[in-house]
Specification:
This protein is an alpha+beta fold. It has two domains: 10-111; 123-170, no CATH class. It is built from five helices and four strands; from the N terminus they run H-H-H-H-E-E-H-E-E. It has helices at 10-37, 46-78, 83-102, 107-111, 149-152, and strands at 135-140, 143-148, 157-162, 165-170. The strands form two sheets. It has a two-stranded antiparallel sheet. Strands 3-4 form a two-stranded antiparallel ribbon. Strand 1 (135-140) and strand 2 form a beta hairpin. The chain is rod-shaped, with a radius of gyration of 25 Å. The termini are far apart.
Length: 171
């Protein structure tokens, strides 16, 4: 059976505190690294996307295990601890629980929110679009629409109706 860190064994308490601190760092990293790797307006390489989606798919299990380990370590630190070490142990559980909750949210959906309302202008009136600006063009049932890439760069998707057909424009 594992020995519980006590006040009489300060090296074990320091070791347990360091492990708890590393668990907090790892849990926070598991949920924030995917956001950093594929945030808008940053080059998104295939490797970055693969790492991001890999972490995203494993983060619910990893953060749950880290939170459970953190609770066990905090309980061990609670026994025989002073008020300040108990406080730190309990405070360490807050980011662990936050990471476990946050890992179950679809952050990519929140980062790349579809543009809900579109406004139209005739090509001659669209002064904010230069002739050399790339656009995504659609022609359906005799109706044409163009979407400047610069305008949809943040959202990555525009929902619209062209020629009576609902479409999702993305790149």
């Amino acid at each position: 059976m594992a020995e519980i860190p006590t006040q009489s064994n300060p090296s074990r308490r320091r070791w347990a505190g360091a492990v708890l601190f590393l668990l907090v760092l790892a849990a926070v990293a598991v949920v924030t690294v995917p956001m950093q790797l594929i945030r808008p307006f940053v080059p998104q390489t295939p490797d970055r996307v693969a790492v991001s989606y890999g972490l995203r798919s494993w983060s619910p299990l990893l953060t749950l295990l880290m939170a459970l380990a953190g609770v066990a370590i905090a309980a061990g630190l609670w026994r025989g601890g002073r008020w300040w070490s108990r406080t730190l142990a309990v405070l360490a559980l807050v980011p662990l629980a936050g990471a476990a909750w946050f890992s179950r949210q679809n952050i990519f959906e929140k980062m790349f929110v579809p543009l809900g309302t579109t406004a139209f202008a005739q090509a001659a009136e669209a002064g904010w679009v230069a002739a050399e600006d790339p656009v995504l063009a659609v022609v359906l049932n005799g109706e044409a629409a163009a979407y400047p890439v610069r305008q949809i760069a943040y959202h990555h998707i525009v929902q619209d109706v062209v020629g009576g057909v609902p479409i999702a424009v993305t790149y």
